[in-house]
């Protein structure tokens, strides 16, 4: 039996891509996780102490730094408003004209080359020209929190939420690639861990108990949501691009980032604390299925419908596993403490749920050298060592000093240093990041109003991301118009393909750095 087949494979692919895009957009709208608070502090007082409060602390921010310190947090409830004002830049170096992909790529053998994973657009047809990334948006958050012991001795329970209020959107996120593929979208380079955070909510909850006068233990969790979205699409007529039938299915489940802490007080004036925080990210799965009318698999004498499916996995707002150890001294009106935090950045996942080093190697292409087993060599003949692009684990240092100048008032200073986990970005990858230095200050004031006890806290933080200049190694940048490309007609060499042509916005290099100022105030009722 013979049967006419629909020759609309290109249309099928376009609609499948559109289906997946819608799924991902729906998934993003449900995400929730932490934002800048791991650096800037989950509350105003922690921000004033540079997040060093691992051994001493009396505010709800200890839910993150060390939940065992909840034992020192009295019954209270209140609100806070915080702002961060970045002035950060990723500035692109001028791209050589010879590295731009010409429109003649359409006349090359690339279009019908089997085994080629990616095909680049001509530079003139990109949606956006390559441009600098100027980070200037002011971010504002409303914090609400409460601690209460329910009348149980040596016990305390706390919860803290931070909600974005700088826009009407309850959640605002945007994914991106960190290599040449981003040229098909924004054509910019983004900051990896500082200054460009997703505007989504952050929630912490925990409890502490003091089994002994010199020992406090605490556990907590950072709450996030994981979303799965599926779109099923049927196209009755592949020649009509703007009509389809669709159904959407979604699944949302809670996810927890566990946090645990201990605090020892061998002497009245000495405390030693330790905390562990597990790896965390917002996991999202998206996918789409597409059916076309009269579209079948090439099976003889049998009608087998051909269905196109695509699946995407994404990871947003990645935070590494962390271990903090701190020691503090409290002598009359003065308290000082220092903490060292280890972060396991070697397991970092980007927005597309991939490790940083996985982008270093080239995508599959018949233009690459061939290995002994017949596979294409992703190291471009040994020019690339992917392990050199693996993120490094880091040790960070945080310090603070507090001075109670009056019974009702206290002033604090803090400082912290966060070295970059990102290695030199010599090849395809564009993870823009560098060492961070933070200087913090704050005050808190206790007062009585309307026969109620209150605490007002304010802080100011100044952060410097030191400028880092990246220069690319052409041998480690993917050549998107290979030298070996031939013309479709007559199979002739193409002189315009000689050398490196790439849409990678990071080629031939870029500079990243700048400052960020953060401030906030909180009002807590103590009862």
Give a verbal description of the structure.
- With 527 residues, the chain is mainly beta.
- The protein is 6% helix and 44% strand.
- It is built from 4 helices and 17 strands.
- The chain has helices at 9-28, 37-40, 44-48, 62-65, and strands spanning 76-92, 133-135, 139-148, 155-164, 202-212, 215-235, 245-267, 270-277, 280-296, 305-319, 322-331, 334-343, 394-406, 409-418, 436-449, 452-471, 509-526.
- It has a 14-stranded antiparallel beta barrel.
- The radius of gyration is 27 Å and the shape is elongated.
- Residues 1-34 have low confidence and may be disordered.
Tell me what portion of residues adopts beta-strand conformation. 35-45%
Count up the helices.
4
Biggest sheet overview: 14 strands, antiparallel, barrel
3D shape: elongated
- Class derived from helix and strand content: mainly beta
Oligomer: single chain
Question: What is the end-to-end distance?
Answer: 84 Å
Question: What order do the helices and strands follow?
Answer: HHHHEEEEEEEEEEEEEEEEE
Brief descriptors of the model:
44% strand, single chain, 14-stranded antiparallel beta barrel, 4 helices, disordered N terminus, 527 residues, mainly beta
Provide the fold topology.
Layout: H1 9-28, H2 37-40, H3 44-48, H4 62-65, E1 76-92, E2 133-135, E3 139-148, E4 155-164, E5 202-212, E6 215-235, E7 245-267, E8 270-277, E9 280-296, E10 305-319, E11 322-331, E12 334-343, E13 394-406, E14 409-418, E15 436-449, E16 452-471, E17 509-526
Parallel strand pairs: 6-9
Antiparallel strand pairs: 1-2, 1-3, 1-17, 3-4, 4-5, 5-6, 6-7, 7-8, 8-11, 9-10, 11-12, 12-13, 13-14, 14-15, 15-16, 16-17
